[in-house]
Amino acid sequence: MNKENLAEVKIEHPNLSKSEDKRQEQNRLHSFKELSVFFEERFNVRHFPEDPQKLYDASQYLLTVKGKRIRPVMCLMANELFDQINDDAYHVAAAIELFHNFTLVHDDIMDKAPLRRGLQTVHTKFGEPTALLAGDVMLVAAYEYLNKISIEYIQPVLNLFNTTAKQVCEGQQLDMNFEQERDVDFNDYVKMIGLKTSVLLAASLQLGAILGGAGIGNQEHIYEFGKNLGIAFQIQDDYLDAFGDPEKFGKKPGGDIMANKKTFLLLQAMTVAPPGQQKELKRLLSLEKEDKIQPILDIYKSCNVDEWAKELKQKYFSIALEQLEEVAVRTVRKKPLEELAEYLMERDV
After folding, report:
1. What is the rounded CA–CA span in Å between residue 31 and residue 347?
2. Which residue of 86, 129, 263, 313 is most buried, as measured by CB atoms within 10 A?
């Protein structure tokens, strides 16, 4: 058939061409950036009434100081990994983002953090009592979104969401406990990070997989992908808190040091540093002054803790990718999640 005849076929069957284009668009996987736009279009609204104004302005405040929306968009991506995006996924994604911000409000109060995403924290701007109530209201709003999803998904979604919410609280308590303990076991610390940080990433993915119709085996693999990625993400976060550029990271460097947090960096330094440096570390940690930050960072570098952290991050990142590889879908469909994981590991903010 010559070119003229080909052209004639296209003219004779315009509806066939449009149908094929539509089918290709439906089957096309979206990038994290694209899904972020879709999510933001729906989420960028006021989620609370106007009165009492101080309470609901405080609840809305952190939502407008936009983060990257990693967790809710992961929910959408996991849904699309298995099937076209279920409209219920946007409700679940909104619930995830509201829950995540609820934890941030309360974490910032407990950590006495002055900044979040480069701006005043909710309790700094509105006062601690209002911030506590604002966080509580955000949690209630999260469940209101979950209540909108189809009845066939309610039970598995609520079961996973509730389990995850409790685990995050457990992780936060362990984190605070560790601040008061002189010696923390490395494996106990990894467990704490798994609860405080990783399970929400993992659950976001599994919730999306549930809405995409994934089987139990695939749900377990995508959960483990998220859990190990979350641990790698926290190692990166610990590293950036100590060595990141404050202009990019949005926080003062050494915030974890000032709070005497047991981080991957500190635990490793207390293990590998010579006795003299270990003694000096303990002395510095007992101080309340900001001028302890740089000496502690100097000890970290002298022990190569910064390089060790990069290697540990890579270990958990590799485990995460192995779990993603086990998900029983075509490899090409995993590409957006692989690209997101690589981006998270290369970030400097």
Report:
1. 17
2. 263
